[in-house]
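Page 37, continued from 36.
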């Protein structure tokens, strides 16, 4: 299994309950598409270098995932539909090969 990082930025104006629900939805979609969450790091609200959707801040999180990579494309399509999930990027971690 390969490892991937998912860095995401959420709308910082979400309430704690809404943010928790959105992250639970993201976790569920990752699992349904064969990506297992190995670790998570919630960075919280951080400043942007430039404004996104009129905001100078965003709520950052970082997941380390494990999977064969086949689920990334379907998950990307689902993430693009979420209005409060502003930005995300998947990065394949070096597996020493």
């Amino acid at each position: 299994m390969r490892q991937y990082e998912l860095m995401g930025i959420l709308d910082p104006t979400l309430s704690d309950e809404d943010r928790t629900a959105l992250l639970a939805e993201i976790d569920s979609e990752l699992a349904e598409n064969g990506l297992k969450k190995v670790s998570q790091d919630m960075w919280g609200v951080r400043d942007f270098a430039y404004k996104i959707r009129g905001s100078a801040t965003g709520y950052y999180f970082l997941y380390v995932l494990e999977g064969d990579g086949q689920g990334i494309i379907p998950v990307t399509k689902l993430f693009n539909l979420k209005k409060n999930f502003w930005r995300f990027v998947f990065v394949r971690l070096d597996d020493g090969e």
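Residues 16-32 form the longest helix (17 residues). Flag for discussion at group meeting. The radius of gyration is 14 Å.
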